[in-house]
Model the fold of this input.
Amino acid sequence: MSAGFPIGRAAEQSGVKVPTIRYYEEIGLLPAPPRTGSNRRLYGDDELKRLAFIRHARELGFDVDAIRTLLSLQDNPQQSCAAADAIARDRLLEVRARISRLRALERELERMADNCAHGHVGECRVIEILADGTHEHGRLGD
Amino acid sequence: MSAGFPIGRAAEQSGVKVPTIRYYEEIGLLPAPPRTGSNRRLYGDDELKRLAFIRHARELGFDVDAIRTLLSLQDNPQQSCAAADAIARDRLLEVRARISRLRALERELERMADNCAHGHVGECRVIEILADGTHEHGRLGD
DNA sequence: TTGCTATTCTCCAGTGACTATAGATTAGGG
DNA sequence: CCCTAATCTATAGTCACTGGAGAATAGCAA
Done:
């Protein structure tokens, strides 16, 4: 039954820095929390999870707009199936594309570390790995 | 035996916009190409691959510094095994962390699309999926 | 050759997502 | 009560682009 905690603790718990939390509130990613009598923000566990989610999603390279749509799935569970489905499917395609790129890069980095273990660096082919010509110029994320 | 192509064609081939190519040159991610008599940049296939690589890596959320170290593997194949190995291993850890996060998100999005197919949205748990408390506060990428 | 549009050039200002600083106020411990 | 740490608002700076202004050049058609 805690009455909530201040922004500093929210920051250290969520891994999102204090000014960034205020920034997220400003741009509407995080709802404005209640304040104390002396005007200080009071956070609870829900905003903590939301913050950590935003942090991870940003680290994965999603831009704020993508995160907004992801959070809208969470926030409006009553919205039309069609809308939620469209959002989920789009993000799913994007996520899968990212995974396959990362796995290709993973294999190449493994190969290099492996070669190193045997005493020689060999040519690095990271460029060839990711520089394949598959142009889907429709943006995939940011 | 083409004498190279101008920046516009390099842009459309690589998927990197013209001003962004000039920017990459400015910050030293892309070597300054030769110029024509009238001072226009002339690119070849190698720069093209490098550009596409940079584009993909940025889309995957690597920052310019990370890309710089990745490219350094490519650029100095003669460098010490220890150095190359360290870079490759670090990036590998990072890449794997990203992959596992993305796979968790993939599963949740699949579940949602799946639920939708059966007529109900259900609660969205994207937040719980990524908002786990595993704090490795050492930055992983950017 | 002349005319015309497209492309390139450099430089500089603007955007998105933070990140840091300044100055004032408040909280909480000794 | 005092003092340091945390918080507040507001503003400015950073990173990685992105777009615009204005001038020069390319390339093609008449």
User: Anything to note?
Assistant: The first helix of chain B runs from residue 7 to 14.
